[in-house]
Amino acid sequence: MMRPSHSSITATVLLLAITLIFSQQDHAAEAMSIQFRWKAELNSKNDRATSRETSQFHLRKSNILATQDSRQKLCQLYERMVTNYPTWLCKKNMTFGLFRPSIVKDDDATNLQLKLGRINMLTFGVPKLSAAPDGGISSCAIQIPVEGGLLSLPPDAENNDQGRLEFSLDAIPAEDDSILVKLTTKIDGNYRPSIGGSPPVPIYRKAMYRFTQSVVHAYVMWRFHRATASAMRELVSLY
Questions:
Q1: Would you state the pLDDT for residue 29?
Q2: CA dihedral 230, 233, 234, 239 (to 10 degrees)
Q3: To bridge 147 with a disulfide, which of 23, 114, 123, 128 should be the other Cys (CB 3.0-4.6 Å)?
Q4: What would the DSSP string read from start to end of the chain?
Q5: Torsion, CA 147, CA 47, CA 128, CA 86, rounded to 10
Q6: What is the pLDDT of residue 41?
Q7: What are phi and psi of 164, to 5 degrees?
Q8: pLDDT at residue 9, as a whole number
Q9: Which positions ≥6 away from 41 have C-beta within 8 Å?
Q10: Dihedrals φ, ψ of 152, to 5°?
């Protein structure tokens, strides 16, 4: 059975320690309250990890929501934020400035690197638009492929997919004339966390993943959802 390296486990615990420190800080400036839910799983049989984070918040009635062209500004803002997600992860108020984004030559992928030793934790591919949710007055969806890094096992022999991050926005009218915005983020596809090792994944490794790397991911996504809500409320306030 393939075992995750000690450096992988150490890096995951380091990320957990950093996020726990920041979780004690006051993030009220990022946004007003949002309803955030999170669910994660590491499949013991095929060592695939999945997660789903959802949030929703209201935008007040505004002229920006009056026409289809103006409503697209919400999607344009969201697409910019998702495209910049790897760089956003490296902000000092996220991880003490311990990480830096490094662009991979030739294919425009982005490495999330520890500054000390330049250890590559994850490699993100080029973001791309995907099928948007149905039914909203403003909807969009973006995928960011995972293409390697210390926290990801190589793809298996059956396919070359290492999983992906999925981001989607759906804005729908609410009864009080406001707009209800629903955000969904996911880990999907064939993402295999190195901390889990090869299948079958034992219970103790599932627990290690559940209480370290998956907690880090949920915390980061909570921050991203809040930052998105704050940016959209600021945009709406200009109209």
A1: 43
A2: 170
A3: 123
A4: -----HHHHHHHHHHHHHHHHHHTS--TTT-S--EEEEEEEE-TTT--EEEEEEEEEEE---GGGSSHHHHHHHHHHHHHHHHTHHHHHT-HHHHTT-EEEEEPTTT--EEEEETTTT-EEEEE---EE-PPPSS-SEEEEEEEEEEE-TTBPPP-TT-----EEEEEEEEEE-TTS-EEEEEEEEEESS--BGGG-SSSPPHHHHHHHHHTHHHHHHHHHHHHHHHHHHHHHHHHHT-
A5: -60
A6: 95
A7: -160, 160
A8: 55
A9: 49, 50, 51
A10: -135, 130
AA letter at 238:
L
Residues in the chain: 239
Instruction: Give the per-residue pLDDT at 2.
Output: 45
Average pLDDT, 10 consecutive residues per value, the chain (239 residues): 50 54 48 81 94 93 66 88 93 80 84 88 92 71 94 82 94 81 95 90 90 89 94 84
Report residue 3: phi and psi, to 5°. -110, 140
- Structural tokens at position 135: 């039914």
Of 194, 195, 187, nearest to 221 by C-alpha is 187
- HSE-up (13 A, CA, CB side) for residue 100: 8
Q: What contacts 63, CB < 8 A, 6 or more positions away?
A: 70, 239
Give, in order, the Cα–Cα distances in Å from 208 to each of 117, 120, 123, 162, 175. Answer: 24, 21, 22, 20, 44
For 61-80, letters b (16+ CB in 10 Å) and e give: ebebbeeeeebebbbebbbe
